[in-house]
Amino acid sequence: MNHLAQLQADFQAYLLDDAQGTSFIEAVVDDKKVGAKKRLSIYHNAYRLRIIEALATAYPKLNALLGDVLFDNIAREYISAYPSTYRNLRWYGNQMREHLLTTLPQHPIAAEMADFEWTLSLAFDAEDVPELTLQDLATIPPENWADLSFTFQPAIKIVRTRWNTIPIWQALEADETPTKPAQESTYQSWLIWRKKFNSQFRLVTEMEVIALNMAMAGATFGEVCESLECEMDEEEAMTTAAQYLATWLQEGMISAVKQK
Amino acid sequence: MKKQSNIDLPYLGFGLGLRTEHYHPIIETKPKVDWFEVLSENYMVPGGKPLHFLDKVRADYPVVMHGVSLSIGSTTPFDQAYLRDLKKLADRIQPAWISDHLCWTGVHGQNMHDLLPLPYTEETAKHVAERVKIVQDYLGRQILLENVSSYASYVDSTMSEWEFISLIAEKADCLLLLDVNNIYVSSYNHNFDAKTFIDGVPAKRVQQIHLAGHQNNGDYIIDTHDAPVIDPVWDLYEYTIAKLGAVSTMIERDDNMPELDVLVEELEIARKIAQKVHAPNITPVEPISMRVAGHA
Questions:
Q1: Which chain A residue shows the shortest CA-CA distance from B50?
Q2: pLDDT, tens digit, for every residue of A203-223?
Q3: Of the candidates A85, A106, A127, which is a domain's last residue?
Q4: Which of B39, B43, B49, B187 best probes binding to A when mutated, by most A CB atoms within 10 angstroms?
Q5: How many structural domains does chain A have?
Q6: Which domain holds residue A113?
Q7: ipTM
Q8: CA distance to partner chain B, nearest, from residue A222 (Å)
């Protein structure tokens, strides 16, 4: 298969603008109707346009934030830097955040927007798991709660922002004119998950992030309460942890419970 | 693998490609569509809405799986994770059959996300046929290979596209998905007679037909799937089914997406042509010039 293998390597190199592909044109029929150069350029252009379209679909708010011209430039640079190894273009944009951190360091909000949009899209088709309810927990006697640990849905992720990325995302989502990019006074954490089939997000406090990370790592309800006692008294810690747990259950984030 | 012939596979009638824009109207109104073709890769995901809606549609309709990333003609090894996930999806939705394109999409682990043409040689046909056998053994069923629209051909080709396709189908004992629009597009781009192509493929192996719209740029045509099927392609379809008999037929639309009922109406044209060809005495059919009225 040496001949075919060489032809395919050369064609791919041509599409990717690698030097190896420069003589590939000689392998293509050149007729009076349409020249070989033009015939190949159809593939060359289609490769880029198809991927740019897929990136624009994956990152609609980033596209709106940057404008079509800058987004197109960024996408073309991305295509050169990260040739696709994915079977579906839906997964292709997964390094956009990193790409923007290096190509647009003067606009850190761009990388934040990419991070948020990508994480939200991952929740969209994350694995389906059962949803545990408050009623399911009600069957467990209160004295056993300290030993309970929980399994969370795989869609859950936390995105941190330093800019007004999410208010801009929300304005664009509502077809409103967003405010100008601005740095917030502190970092903010946004919890992303899925309720039934819809991706959700909300602002979370740093204390809830700690409790959630612990619980997701397998800590028991008792251990989560103890960790909160660094910040508050025992009773308040218990109440706060119970509130968190109730919220996570209501939001459909927990899929299973087990007793140690 | 147990050898089969496509006599074992059902005739499904007239179908459409399942697209996200139409999930709700399909589930809620159960339109007059006999079956749906789904793009395999779109459902090779962990969970969420895509699989939820696919399961719902599958509960009401026969479904076939159509892939774009098998890369049957590639010279680098198969993506084993791809094959595994393809089989997993097939186990879940039990498609009537599975198809992909007679092309290559990339080498060395990269994907160009395009249906790139192969040189029509004995050597390539042998290579592709061997890979088709591997896939058929793995999936435990015959697969369908589709002819692609192409914009370039190779100086090394030693046979016609239809000879190449026929050779692979015979060597691999696989089935064919004849894209009548792609035949039209490629015949325009490469100056051959589309009917000669249709005459040249083994009729008994053609299990499915694709129809679609395209974009004519004057000196060449791009296969865009963003417009209604044009009259010359309908004429070619009529010629094809007159030659091949009743073949499960569907319309592909991927861009400039109309409402579902527009596509259901367009599918009626295919039904009427089939009726005219195969049962001309039952119901009179309107003339060809009327076929695309209203959505040209």
A1: A125
A2: 999 999 999 999 999 999 999
A3: A106
A4: B49
A5: 2
A6: 108-260
A7: 0.91
A8: 32
